[in-house]
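Q: Two folds, back to back.
A: First:
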Amino acid sequence: MARRSEHTQEQIREMVLNAAETIVVEEGFHALTVRKVALEIGYTVGSIYMVFANMDDVVMHVKGRALDELAGQLRQLEPCESAEQHILALAEVYLQFAHQHFNRWRMIFEAIKDAPVPEWYQQKTREMFSIVEQPFCRLLPDPADPEQAHLAAQALWSGVHGACVLSLNGSLGRVGAENAQATVAMLVTNFIAGWSQPRNPASATPPRK
């Protein structure tokens, strides 16, 4: 069924990614195989390997497109009056994306191989996290210490991600989107309240024996 003369390699590449994405959305990423993609686009397996190194390469690019879409939605947020409101809005967008695009969102975190992660994919991850870190920088008690914003963003987003996972996989029973949103809002609000408190080094000193 090869039709190499009908499309350029760039067009075939896009067809492969679109087909792979459709399979992930409809059947889950575990159902994604090179033969299914080839059948979907009407090309041979060999044609796919002319534009991608292997199936892992296809998977990484499908994940990359999901990251790009998520980052795009995070960037489109309207300006908020406070950093706290901005962080909460980011968390709500993340939760909404996870609910609306469950299989693609799940694939980002579960379709992981032992092979080294390409630099271009690592850059996409860094760019997405930088969106989350920006409002934390506005809350820093010491603007000269941006590493604290980085650590806080990672810590909070680990919690937000956990709440998404539990709400979507049924680990806490039937948790609807509204209840999950309330859980995330409570997590974000309390985390920021605690993190924003002035730090008193003396209070962290252990008592003398």
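A: Second:
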Amino acid sequence: MGKHLLFSMLFLLPLLTEASKVASGIIGGHEAKPHSRPYMAYLSTLVQDNKRQICGGVLLREDFVMTAAHCKKSSTEVWLGVHDVTKTDNVEKIRVKTAIPHPDYNFSSKSMEHDIMLLQLETNATLNSIVKTIALPGSQNKKVPVKCTVAGWGLMGIDPNSNAPNELRETDVTIENSHHCPKDDLCHLGHNGPGKGDSGGPLVCEDEHEPVASGVVSALKQRRTTNEVLFMYTDVSYYLPWIRKHVGN
């Protein structure tokens, strides 16, 4: 069953948040400690009137970022080592050399299945105290993670007119085994989670006491009856062979 059939109302999380509308993105979250998530990538694409369309991402290797396939745009710039998007003096800004969406992702469909993409950077990132890579899950057969976190610079509410932050925000989430969740996704139902503009950011879970990028922010659906939201993340473990084909171990 496609993701667009699960609930009566669908909200995708594309990179259409305009960073020029910032005010104070995670729904129900709080500001992260500066540079406590050095693997976070801010994907910026300039559009009309000098505004930016944004997505999140995560640094897997010095020259590869993982994000959502629906974040694919031309002329995207990856920012690394950023906390406050208005303070970029020490931020590494690297252009994307090649975008590699999963071959089974359908750009003309609303199902959002196989919503994962790798971005090869034009130059290698310089790793330091505020720019680091993150590990991937060990295997597909491991137990589904439960306690995780998600972070981003997206909107802080479901309403498209909600404010977006300058600073990276984060929240804790609890992953659930739900029959509403597609088999290649990780999901949780509630009110705290990623907002519009957080697409492509990592769902970070503990794997043998090490933080790993277990999921990629993909989509959300809101129930009209309860206003609860189903937050959906592409399950990275399903795509390990494909990722390793391009990035290596």
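Q: And?
A: The CA atoms of residues 189 and 230 lie 4 Å apart.
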